[in-house]
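Hey, sorry to bother you again with one of my protein questions. A protein chain has come my way and I'm curious about its shape. I'm sending you its amino acid sequence along with the backbone structure tokens. I owe you a coffee for this, so here goes:
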Amino acid sequence: MLGAVQHNIDNANGLLQNIKPGQLDLLVLPELAFTGYNFPSLEAIKPFLEPTTAGPTAQWAVNAAQRLQCHVTVGYPEVSTSAAGQTMNYNATVTVSPLGEVLANYRKSFLYYTDETWAHEGPNGSALHSHTETCKPFLCGQLGRLGNVGHGICMDINPYQFTAPWRDFEFANTMLREGVRLVILSMAWLTHRLPHELEVEPDKPDMETVAYWRERFWPFIESAPREEIIVVFANRCGVEGNTSGTVHVENGAEVEEGDRVCYAGSSCVMRFQGGSVRLYDRGEGVAILGKNEEGVLVVDTSQHAKYSLQPGTI
């Protein structure tokens, strides 16, 4: 729900109430998880900007990580203030250790149209399209006991500004060069489906979207790595925005809503290895959420990834 931060936090806590401490190694929430995503302007999102790793989202992540004894990654709208008092806004994720320590603050490198109304690119967002060899886009590195991890946010896996060549595969190739074995993606990925279409078999995934995600990691398939690479897609579901007007939010303000958008849901975990792409089992079928299914998808990546994800089967 757009702008309803406490409501969304309460909803997340409710969804997680049956998760036991130590049951998870990593918990990933969507892009701008608690504020909502579809803000049409800086003025609209400004009341919800949070100081770097110090706002309600980061505090929730610390509490959740300590309670569940796992790493937590969650998206939030960041306002960074320099020593000179200059502010910069970013679409960011914060990652917290099981002890409640902030391990990473990643800023989205490739912005979507909605982001461009209020956020700056992460410091190295356009590095692949510049002549500065020392700059690196995205974020890769050791992340506690999770090992070498790559971070991305939604549009990061697309061609830069939708103008770079499709086969540049900037994000996937960066992950390969950095030798990551786990990729974490917080997302607010849209679908072309209309709101009433999301209500038809809401527990069924949007396989057109899942197929697209798979294709954006083609370098993982083509390189046929001997060691597995796990990619976590944590996507928003449902509908935000309206055809016009404002929404009354918790702080008492009237916030402008963006155009109505529908999210693809379909959160899942893919395993890339030896030229194949596979999905995991959750005991009652494929471990993937529906296109309009809100929930906690628990995936045991130590188990065999049972289901092949091939273009001909989608």
The radius of gyration is 19 Å. Residues 125-134, 247-253 have pLDDT under 50 and may be disordered. Residues 56-68 form the longest helix (13 residues).
